[in-house]
Design goal:
By secondary structure, the protein is mainly alpha-helical. It has one domain. It has helices spanning about 1-5, 10-30, 35-40, 45-65, 70-95, 115-130, 135-160, 160-180, 185-205, 215-225, 240-255, 280-310, 315-340, 360-375, 380-405; strands at about 95, 100-105, 110. A hairpin with a 2-residue loop joins strand 2 (about 100-105) and strand 3. The radius of gyration is 24 Å and the shape is globular. The two termini are about 35 Å apart.
Length: about 400
């Protein structure tokens, strides 16, 4: 037990949520990746890869939560440079899937640049707002700097991954609100964004083709493609509604108790069953239990982030933990809403649960940041932890003193 306490410090509930999400992920990714296993002719290949990423991610959490959160700014700078480089080369050298170059292959390893950009922006926004709380003028300067940097990243991500660009902007916007940026500026910014969204939706409706935007038709299909519901008598499964239709069938098959893990039928028909639509497979196999326990875990995580943030005495750690929790939880709920047909298909994986490489590792870094803040962002917790360490070392010190006395030292 003493070894466990030494390795796994910080907020216990966050660790428990991480553990449960990992267990569910291993079970469901193994079940949902049957088509992937068949394509590579290796039954255990996909799950061993995923398990390795989870293990490496857990190691990252252990490392991160033992490092004071103030050093996160150095990590943010590193990811800032990596994100700019990878996003810059992605349109030219990226791996294209469905007309989108979301991955970059470096020495045989695929990276998702947008994941680095999201983490870099959370740390950068927290740092800028944390350093500019002394006056309104400094906060105003920080607002414009954050706006420019976020805009650059969003534009670089936009063409290949619209949903991620929107998610990034939403999280940064909420962080600026929490960071006490002038409310008038935020209202004007929010109003301008809403006008831009309505204009974009209108153009999607009336413009059939946009030169230079290969994903224009993909956006149209995802927003306006599903005209009929599965329950309509004239409904047919076609390319435009293929993913949503098979997700609905998987959810309907789940009923109350589910078909139990390993017994999904739609995993062989649903594209990205182990990633973008894993929540539909979870409901099919775990029924109402899976449908409720997944959102419950993310809500618990967000609640614990609020508790940790309220105990922080500085803005910087408060924004770090809230930004990390917002990114993880918002992405999770977008994934769930897509699976149940409430939200257009976005391609957002479920953090920590979906099969992934870069996404899994970056999500683990978010957990590491939250745990680091829970340890060092609250002076009371830091003092309590130091007291516990002193109590653990006391028997060793006493033994050393007794040994010294015995030999007359």
């Amino acid at each position: 037990m003493s070894l466990i306490k030494k390795l796994f410090k910080g907020d216990t509930v966050v660790w428990i949520v991480f553990l449960f999400l990992c267990i569910i992920s291993l079970i469901e990714v193994y079940s949902a990746s049957s088509t992937l296993a068949y394509s590579v002719k290796n039954t255990y290949g996909p799950i061993l890869r995923h398990g390795t990423f989870l293990l490496v991610g857990a190691s990252l959490i252990v490392i991160m939560h033992n490092i004071h959160y103030k050093y996160a700014s150095l990590l943010g700078l590193l990811f800032f440079v990596i994100a700019l480089f990878l996003l810059g080369i992605a349109p030219f050298y990226g791996v294209r899937v469905n007309n989108a170059a979301r991955w970059v292959n470096v020495f045989g390893i695929q990276f998702q640049p947008s994941e680095f950009a999201k983490l870099a922006m959370i740390i950068f926004t927290s740092f800028m707002l944390g350093k500019t709380q002394r006056s309104d003028d400094s906060r105003n300067k920080a607002f414009w700097i954050i706006m420019i940097v976020t805009g650059v990243f969003a534009l670089m991500i936009l063409m290949e991954n619209l949903s991620t660009a929107i998610l990034l902007c939403v999280v940064v916007y909420i962080m600026m609100f929490l960071g006490r940026v002038n409310s008038k500026k935020l209202v004007l910014l929010g109003g301008g964004v809403l006008v831009a969204i309505f204009l974009f939706m209108f153009l999607l409706k009336v413009v059939d083709h946009a030169p230079g935007l290969p994903r224009w038709s993909t956006w149209q299909n995802r927003v306006y493609g599903a005209e009929l519901k599965v329950t309509d008598p004239d409904f047919k499964i076609v390319d435009k509604n293929y993913q949503e239709s098979n997700a609905n069938i998987a959810i309907a098959n789940g009923r109350f108790l589910g078909s139990l893990p390993g017994n999904s039928t739609q995993r062989d028909f649903l594209p990205q069953a182990y990633s973008d639509f894993i929540y539909a497979i979870i409901i099919e196999e775990m029924g109402w239990f899976g449908m409720l326990v997944i959102p419950f875990l993310y809500l618990v995580l967000f609640y614990r982030a609020l508790v940790i943030a309220r105990k922080c005495v500085k803005i910087y750690p408060m924004l770090l933990v809230m930004g990390s929790a917002l990114m993880v939880c918002l992405q999770a709920f977008i994934n769930m809403m897509v699976a149940v047909g409430v939200f257009p298909v976005t391609g957002q994986p479920m953090p920590l649960v979906s099969r992934g490489g870069t996404s899994t590792l970056i999500t683990c870094i978010y957990f590491g940041i939250m745990l680091s803040v829970s340890r060092y962002g609250n002076p009371e917790a830091e003092i309590r932890e130091q007291t516990e360490l002193d109590e653990e070392d006391e028997p060793l010190n006493r033994q050393a003193m007794d040994t010294s006395s015995e030999y007359g030292v």
